[in-house]
Design a protein that fits this description.
16% of the residues lie in helices and 14% in strands. It is of the alpha+beta class. The strands form twelve sheets. Strands 1-17-18-19 form a four-stranded antiparallel sheet, with no helix packed on it. The longest helix has 14 residues, at 378-391. The chain is globular, with a radius of gyration of 27 Å.
Length: 791
Amino acid sequence: MTSGNSSFRRLPFALLLAGVVSCGPEKSEDPPLSANAQPLVGQTYTLTCQAPGTGFGEVVIPPVPGTLPFTPLMSLKTVPNPVLEIDAKTGAWVAGGGLANYVVDTTALIQLGKALFWDVQAGSDDLVSCASCHFQAGADIRATNQLHPGANGAWDGQAANQTLAAIDFPFTDPAIPRDIDNAAGSQGVRRGAFVAVDPTTGVETVTYQNDPVFGNARQATGLNAPPSVNAVFNHRNFYNGRAQPEFNGVNPWGTRDSAARIWYVFNAAGDIAQSTARIQNGSLASQAVGPPLNPTEMSAVGRTFPDLGRKLLRRKPLGLQKVAADDSVLGAIADRRLKGLKTTYAAMIQKAFVPSLWNTAKTVTIGTTSYSLLEANFSLFWGISIMAYEATLVSDDSPMDRYAASRVFETATGTGQLISHSPALLQPVVDRLAAEGIAITIADILTGLDLFEKPLPLPGTGLPIQPGTGVGCVFCHVGAETTSASIRALTGHGLEPGDVALKNAGFDLRMERMFMGFKPPPPVPPHPAPPVPVGTDVITFDSGTYAVNAISINNTPVTPTPVRIATYDSGWYNIGVRPTAEDLGLGGLDLLGRPLSWVEYYLATLPDPSVIRVVGGGLGCTDAFGNPVTPPAAPVTSPFAGEVLNPATGYPLLAGGLLRGEATDVAGSFKTASLRNVELTGPYLHNGGKSTLWQVMELYDDGGNFQNPTLSPLIRPIGMTPAQVKALVAFLVSLTDERVLYERAPFDHPELVVPVGQDATGKDLLTTLPAVGAAGSVKLRRFLDLSPFQP
């Protein structure tokens, strides 16, 4: 039988051969209920492996015909952009999908988005922009005044305005031992209350006050800033997923906020009415409208988006910053004599958006204040344009992308053997690191890739990592996007064998029900015990509760043992970075007090949650030689041949409707991060508690820092050698796109002055990042200038 590692369905050749799903067109958070939905009626089945005495199998070798033994990493060039399309004739970006209802000029839209993203005038103090926390490879590598006191509210020997050093990391280290719950976040604004924006000059008035935690220093966020580069592929954004996949034009909450409305002109007289906005694949826009009003990140308390619009519409775009004459997006409208752009935000909006969103002299009254339509809809303009700009920030030309594109696999017989490849494409990584005095080889990178793509050895065997096995990173960092939280993985056609069959059957790829392994009470360490003991040849299955029990091992009766089963949101996992109670992550609540998790949201809000069909794990059945056996319930033509299936449905045992009251595993779960350019985006993890990639690998090698109740079953001690850790880090470095490393187009940018703490008098200390044009700049530095191979 297989182990609790099978909590992930994407195991086409190992562990519990889990089914794979996809859903149809992307659902809103409130799916229509089926009028014919019926409660599940339990029925117990006795299921037998077709080769009695050999037991339900652990590893299907050779793989099921027609499938590869793993999901190979592909070039990101193979992934369609979910927001922008390329015009086949001109090669220019074109707004795709529902954006066509709002946008008339995509080039102007991207120009507007880039200007707004980098403009420090958007901060209440005229010194903080979106880019202030996303200026390097889309992330933040500042080291001073970046600390937040964490869940306990105490500084744990550290302090506000402290400058972090290598010795401060990792925050948690069981070997010392050391455990600091502070977080390395991003400094934003000082605590203040919004007063007003001058309607003539755009000057914003704020009343500042000392903060009980940060004093007169800038406040810092409690989470590390996730990279904005490649974020366009994320189904949901923010670590806890609150930036919804449908943009409502107003705030991050998508369809969860039924009161969110935009304004539009509905007749020739210029009269204004309200309407809902529902922009699919719009999580980047949902994310973009969060920070500008956040009282820690960019805003004084009480400022609204119409107030921000009133301010910026009266300011010169990027008026405090230089813009390179050869900026790849803004160069044509850059003011080459002075700072900023030779246009206005009003003109940029009017060029980019349909007239019905701005073209009237009549005003909108919000509360007790009258605003122009341009001001009233500023959240819509902000979100859509920044999303369009960020959608151009795709790093799909790393050495690993080029190498991945060169690989050819044998697929006719399903062996998945590598037929041809071009390892020399990885030489630039070796040469670049050699120039820094860091010695790696192409063989190191290829070994790291192999470890990344292949599964762990069988649990309980005591075997070390060996040829044909790895560390199973790809089970979570799946696809060219290197994250299972991507749009393709959750709402597209899926990335694994069997996806299409389950998609066509109406299963929802955003959720999974899996065998979760065995976790004895502390101090006994958890281990991924098999759902049923190895060698089991007969089990019972209750279709009404999804309960699986062993009743015979090698034809010898055994006492049935219930198997722990839980359902969770795909792509969101608890990896033991911090205790779950400190931050529930996806297990938290939305603005109306409802669960952020899809699973818990539907269980809490739907009269009959079984209308949501959840993909689930199955049990692989093998003969004495490990070859797949097709149980009677699975036709030879089934995409799930080799699995024991639910006789009533023909799908993997745990696949089926949500059950009221069923167990969930979402508390303390966070979004699986993309790994691209990760060399440049330290510090790492949602709390910023690791300073190098080597330290991150040690976290995984230890099986997490904390054995949380909802810890993913795939997080368990690995036992890697130093050479294997080095190989994995070398592979991760190969994912750095040199256009990002040298800030070449589209990763060039305007000048940015960023706060880096304050002096003894409370005055901001500032550093200036010069404007960079399309040709790029000097090479970016890593966090604290540390080698990624440094423990």
